[in-house]
Amino acid sequence: MYFLTVNYYSTQLIQKLINSIKLTPQLFQQIIIINNSTDDNSIYQLQNHTTIIINSETNLGYGKACNLGLNWIYVRNPQAIIWLINPDAYLLPNALEKAHHFLAEYPDFSILGTTVYEPTGKVWFGGGNFIPETGKIIANEFLSNTETSTTDWVTGCSMLINFKNFKSCPEFDEDYFLYYEDFDFCRRYAKQGHKIAITQKISVVHQPSSITNKNPELKFEHSIYSYLLSLEKHTNKLVLIYRLIRITIAALILLPINYKIAYVKIKAIGKFIRHNCRLGRTKC
Question: Is the entire prediction scored with pTM above 0.85?
């Protein structure tokens, strides 16, 4: 098993993550850190024979950075299990052992999500639902009645990928810079017949938005843009247009009340429209 995480000025958080991974040679191979902040020299203090740092030339965004790591591992071990995990998350006791036992018992799951808790013990992610008829993408903040269940999507905050079930290296869609790339990843591979599940038997703790809250306006812009992108890829035009109109109207109503948030929404909509213009999907 390999752990894969993306650094963006997160050295202290990744140190906590590494400390939570008990060094058990028979259970895991290496921790791969994709360094998305190339001027962050502090990250190199974590480098050793089990922790590999791969530098990106610039901030690639989350999905593209993950692809860099996934391909690096796939070349070396196309039979590996990858535990993709946020830098601001950490494992609960025995999570590594539980993950190994679980995937040995259920090898047909290609993508496995773990239960994600906040430091307070509140459930942060307990499975994802998607309603294509309305465009609703739902992240459940509760646990289901069954310990393990199939689900529409799982969060990239803590996702295990079983390379054995893929004919080539699975990759995130690089149209996404941040947010919803995990949703798209799951939906694309589900359409190809891959099984996606979430289990309560494996858990991690996540400190929500401890990184992205450094720039909340940019976070909001990425979120809206990526949501619209997801609707374009996984629903029909009517649903996309309906949601686009709703977001636009909400932004216009908000303008005199909260100009900053309204402007961010309009900016994200403009970015999405320009993206479609470049691809020739919209007459501009």
Answer: yes
